[in-house]
Design a protein that fits this description.
Oligomer: single chain
Order of helices and strands: HHHHHHHEEHHHHEHEEEHHEE
Distance between the termini: 90 Å
Number of helices: 14
Largest sheet: 6 strands, mixed
Shape: globular
Strand content: 5-15%
Length: 311
Amino acid sequence: MKFTSDVVLLAIAYDQAVAENHNQYVHSRFQKWFYNHLSELERRRRQRRIPRSALLLPSQSPWRRAYRANCDQAMITLTGLDCVTFAFILQDFEFYFENYSPYSTDGTIVRVEKVGRRKGRPRLVQASDALGLVLVWTRTRGSKFVLEVIFGMTQSCVLLYLSFSIVLLISVLQGKDDAKIRRPSIEKIQQYQHAVASRHPGLADVWCAMDGLKLLIESAGDDDEQNCYYNGWTCDHYVNAVLVFCPDGTIPICCYNVPGTVHDSMVAVVGKIYAKLESVFESCGARCVVDSAFARNIILFSSNRKSHQLL
């Protein structure tokens, strides 16, 4: 009897172990029978990347052609900046690019030592390419193979220089006063009021406009975290932001990196945007144009049909 009970307990323990192994999370890619039976060559053919042999050199890439054309229309379409603004940022960006390198043993950005003759081959990627890469990336949804074709770089180089260029661009913008988000002076606000009133006489007191922005992000693996960023109205995952725009395109007030479940009006409350607009109204009587998503207030011109302040 004792031998029989030991066999039964052993069988139960074995079944539990098999069940636990079976319940372990396995990525959906490796659950597919078809993928598991592919050869190494067949798996490589299905990777969403373009090999070096199928790409142009960076010196012959579509980006380098558009950059050398000095065409504002092309640069605004690709980067969001005209040629003059791009060159203005490139002056400081090039200094960081030439003195720092993303190639290191531990993956960190290191300073380039210029003692004697520089060793190794020169970079095929120039400072203008790196700055253009991060700006073009902000204009897309992050598709890597599109950036590969535009810049003539393999995916590994795109990812390396993208992370490198983001750090350099942040360092450049942090040192420029024009890139800072800050409230303008009363004299500047009055200039904005005159600019708006000259084009729209019915908006004599308006100096800015406010609107929400949804930035599409990848869904998180954790259900609770994913639920925070899920927007049921658009059925996707976002990070929300509310931006205040001036007539010259500058952003004096904003609130960003808010989970996608939060409404635009609540973002304005959390980011104290209403309080900042109210302080401007109290100082010079200037108001802000908004849509119906925001609360009705004396400091706002709203497009809400129920409001008495119609545009």
